[in-house]
Amino acid sequence: MITVEHLTKRYGAFTAVNDVSFTCVPGTVTGFLGPNGAGKSTTMRMISGLTPPSSGTATVNGVAFRDLPNPGRHIGVLLDASAQHSGRTGREILSLSAQLLGVGRKRVDAMLELVGLAGPAEKRRVGNYSLGMRQRLGLAHALLGDPSVLMLDEPANGLDPEGIFWMRGVLRDFADRGGTVMLSSHLLREVEAVADHLVVIGNGRIVADGAKDELLHAGGLYVRGLEPATLEKALTEAGLSVQPTRDGGFSVAADAESVGRAALAAGVVLLELRRADSGGLEEMFLRLTSHHDADDSTKDAA
Amino acid sequence: MSALATTPAAGTHRPARTTRPSLARLTAVELRKATDTRAGFWLLTIIALAALGMVLIQIFTGSAEDRRFAEFFGGAQLPVGLLLPVVGILAVTGEWSQRTTLSTFALEPRRERVIAAKLSAAVLMAVGVVVASLAWAALANVVAPLVTDADASWSFSAEGLGRVVLFQVVNVLVGTAFGLALLNTPLAIVLYFLLPTLWTILGSTISALETPAEWLDLSSTTMPLLDGDLTGEAWAQLGTSLALWLALPLALGLWRVLRSEVK
């Protein structure tokens, strides 16, 4: 369980994170989405006690990070897979932390096995690891203390498609066993496949927060007509919120009947009218992160 | 991944109770960190070899009455005193240059405990190196009479050992404090060697600085620890110089590390 309440971080006149609140509950994977520089990493560093917040609080399992006795046994944190001593071997890095956490050598063996670094790879220095291998080691490191919460910043960075698929499996499995997972990404697709819950941040503010399916639905309908210009005019005149998509169609925040009637009234032939697919979530993501200042209504979801 | 099905890896059973890692455990981890990298390992190896080299030189130089255990032991301290502080500097600055502070402070968010562990590890290393140099001195004292004229006396006092241990502990702590205050490897190493030397040069060339230098020049105030000339005034001078070269950077370093944002 991660609880973030009114977290704010200011650097002089610049507000990197602005009054951010959300919760990650056990048994779910929360995708923390936002473009680069939106404040994702700053928020995660504040949760893990590495950056002092200007105001607000964050707790893990109800306790402030600093007050967790042996935090690694409660929350596994991976903020930057490359932030490891390049001169240590993968096994040595895990063994050091295992010693601090008070978990045995068997746990190190099991984690190396789990992330596919057991064998010759574990004896190589991390400086010679690919980014994908570092991410694997970082995940092993986060899981080392057998925590109930995982917080990962851009864990799919540098992983090949197979690695991404594998990591999804590990995180899904972790959540299905009652664990709490929070992972950040600037790529919607990456998170979409594994998350149950989405928190979207843009320019330091939460612009959307809700169940993935709900937010998908909020993407509305997709409609495409024979004469796009006429269709857009008809939908706009019917008072519907219309957003052109790249392929000449529109995403509309309305029910199918309203769209159908508007098209009928204008005499436009419809070629497609359906629930917006996952691409709709992407449109939403782009829209929310670029228009969040103007569009206050989306913040009500937060 | 078949491993997924068989290991409790992603298991999420909660440990009923967890306790803070003890300072002893944190210190053990810091000692391991100081020796498990190539830089750390070779630096300690070079220190050991330099101490050995020093006692070998003493066998073949100087006068016969100086070829005794206490002198060999004292001589071995010079290269150690010079290089060991670098181990202390690296123990701190290495974490910043390699950005391992991200995981170090995520595993122990009470940063003052990590610093305490680093200081303890530095002290233990100083003690360890002094003990190791006892072995070199003993070796030299056995070999010397076989190859040359030597006094070969074994006379040695616990008080002398204590002074030397204190000398090395002070040196390595000053190095660690410089590392903490600067959090940058090259800067800390350069300033650690440059500042006191500069002070020594100034103190010996500018007559007005002669008296302040007696109280603030660490290289002269720590000498009595090796020579055994520990008068009350010498202790006071040692304490004063340590306030400047140890307490001040340590306080500054603590303030920086506890307040800083770890990225």
Automatic annotation (TrEMBL), chain A:
Signal peptide: none annotated. Residues 2-228 form the ABC transporter domain. GO terms for molecular function: ATP binding; ATP hydrolysis activity. Pfam families: ABC_tran. PROSITE patterns: ABC_TRANSPORTER_2. Belongs to the ABC transporter superfamily. This is ATP-binding cassette domain-containing protein. It comes from Jiangella rhizosphaerae.
From TrEMBL, chain B:
The chain crosses the membrane at residues 41-60, 72-94, 115-144, 164-183, 190-209, 234-258. Keywords: Membrane, Transmembrane, Transmembrane helix. This is ABC transporter permease. It comes from Jiangella rhizosphaerae.
